[in-house]
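Pinned message: reference record for THAP-type domain-containing protein
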Amino acid sequence: MHTSDSLIRTRLKIKIDSKSKQHCCVPLCTFDARNNPNLNFHHIPKDPDVRKQWIIKIRRDEGTHFKITPSTVVCSKHFKPEDYKSWTPVRKVLNKNAIPSIFDWSKEGNPRRALKRKIVETVSGSLVGDIAIQSSESTSES
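Predicted structure (tokens):
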């Protein structure tokens, strides 16, 4: 009995250690399993069509700086609740064709600020900023 207990502890430790090394591969995402134990991590699918859609959505291309390996994962923060078919207290299960869609760069709540442009004209040799002022000569010509 003692050997089975130690075997279970060893397997549990291996599982915990492997999960603690998981971190999300999405750019600008800093979530990992060490600091966020409630997150789930999903491997990039093997189906070539779905895999291509994931890579496009997460804005990653395979190359010298990014390689898809068996440990490449995307965290659950990038999926909508309807992307899951069911979940248990232990694990969330994605729908077969679920694609990550929630990213820092696509949040609707943070619109880009409007560009502010200074309008600078010369009026009688002096610079005027922020507003356009027409001289009396230019208004009489129009």
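Pinned by admin. Summary line: The two ends are 100 Å apart (CA to CA).
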